[in-house]
Write a structure and sequence with these properties.
There is one protein chain. With about 375 residues, the protein is α/β, with parallel strands linked by helices. It folds into 2 domains: about 250 residues, Type I PLP-dependent aspartate aminotransferase-like (Major domain) (Aspartate Aminotransferase, domain 2); about 120 residues, Aspartate Aminotransferase, domain 1, CATH 3.90.1150.10. Helix content is about 40%, strand content about 15%. It is built from 13 helices and 15 strands. Helix 4 links the parallel strand 3 and strand 4. The chain binds 4'-deoxy-4'-aminopyridoxal-5'-phosphate.
């Protein structure tokens, strides 16, 4: 039986994207490849709301964590003062990463399920000289979306560089470098619609000129090296630092051009509607979200009803054809699950998912009116038609 993958990345990929992985691998210095790579960089810039005159796009073989590293180590020196907005598991990861380079960092840690209050960020930025602040746009562990636009309004008028983890947001949430973001990064496997293996991102001219005054702290994630590659590719000449994952770049290129064809506004609205419809279904079944209000378009983290065993619930859902993910937050581990709803998500995926959740809950003793979740999701999906 084909199972529908509804975890927060990897996701379901289009067949033309997947087919690119089985094409004969061409030379990474061929005109043909440089042209695909160039288009991918240009589309990536556009998806992040920037252009190559005001920022540098990059694509590096590796997972999102490499993007995290590249997006911070290039813009700090040993013992730089930094601030981490920590709304979950991936905020903790920033702390772990940054603590290898500096002991001079602080965190703002909102209560579980809450987004950061931008006025707290303002207070911190106004009274400290941070060189850099990191914000996880959507924390995949909680489904909470931070208000990056308002945070950028604060940092853009300061000397603090704003680094945004957009791994779980780019391609599914409104995100615009023009708000005043300095560095934003993501990974191929989520709403950008290509299999895992590429770290991607955009660094503003302000960030790049800061980088050029600092000594490098790393090697493979040194953006000075990748800048030569990106600028060479953008000039259609090509450039080499590490051999690119040729077929994965071809796959990403296809996916990014499909995103551009759909148009970011339409795409974000679609993600928003699918997320709200899933939530309508879940809430009608009496389930509670971890996010209190700032719901992400791309992922939902959901408490299980008391007495429902996570492992059994996930197994039952899988038996009904849908794969969901367990939680990542230790303190509530075992009490919640996550649904990824990004990429080519549409009404079919919403209905199949809610149907599987209903049945899996029922099998685990959570009784409710049959079809209640499906009916609520469907009404939300088609409320405007
Ligand atoms: N940041 C966020 C918000 C993520 O969701 C993830 C992956 N789930 C990462 C960083 C790390 O990415 P990867 O697992 O690809 O290294």
């Amino acid at each position: 039986m084909k199972k529908l993958l509804m975890i927060p990345g990897p996701i379901e990929y289009d067949s033309d994207v997947l087919n690119a992985l089985s094409l004969p691998t061409i030379s990474h210095s061929s005109k043909e490849f440089i042209s695909v790579y160039r288009d991918a960089l240009l589309n990536l810039s556009a998806i992040f709301g920037s252009s190559t005159s005001d920022s540098l796009p990059f694509i590096i073989s590796g997972s999102g964590t490499l993007g995290m590293e590249a997006s911070v180590v290039n813009f700090i020196k040993r013992d730089s003062k930094v601030l981490v907005v920590n709304t979950g598991y991936f905020g903790d990861r920033f702390v772990d990463l940054l603590s290898r380079f500096t002991s001079n960092f602080e965190q703002i840690k909102p209560a579980l399920g809450e987004a950061v209050d931008p006025s707290l960020v303002r207070e911190k930025i106004d009274t400290n000289e941070y060189e850099l602040i990191t914000v996880t746009h959507v924390d995949t562990s909680t489904g909470v979306r931070n208000d990056v636009k308002r945070i950028a309004e604060i940092t853009r008028n300061s000397d603090t560089l704003l680094v945004v983890d957009a791994v779980c947001s780019a391609g599914g949430e409104n995100l615009d470098m023009k708000w005043g973001i300095d560095v934003a990064f993501s990974a191929s496997q989520k709403a950008l619609g290509a299999p895992p293996g590429l770290a991607v991102g955009v660094a503003s001219n302000r960030a790049i000129s800061r980088m050029e005054k600092l000594p490098p702290l790393s090697f493979f994630s040194d953006l000075r090296k990748w800048k030569v590659v990106s600028t060479g590719v953008l000039d259609s000449k090509g450039g080499y630092f590490g051999t690119p994952n040729v077929n994965l770049v071809l796959a990403l290129g296809i996916s990014l051009s499909k995103i551009m064809k759909e148009g970011m506004e339409v795409r974000i609205r679609r993600h928003e509607l699918m997320s709200a419809s899933i939530r309508a279904g879940l809430e009608s079944m009496g389930l509670e979200m971890i996010a209190k209000k700032a719901y992400a378009n791309t992922v939902s983290a959901v408490y299980l009803p008391q007495g429902v065993d996570l492992k059994k619930f996930l197994e039952h859902a899988e038996d009904r054809g849908v794969v969901f993910a367990s939680g990542l937050i230790k303190e509530i581990g075992g009490r919640y699950f996550r649904i990824g709803h990004m990429g080519n998500i549409g009404p079919s995926e919403v209905m199949i998912s809610i149907g599987a959740i209903e049945k899996a809950l029922e099998a685990n003793g959570h009784l409710m009116r049959p079809g209640i979740g499906l009916s609520a999701a469907q009404s939300n999906l088609f409320k405007s038609s």
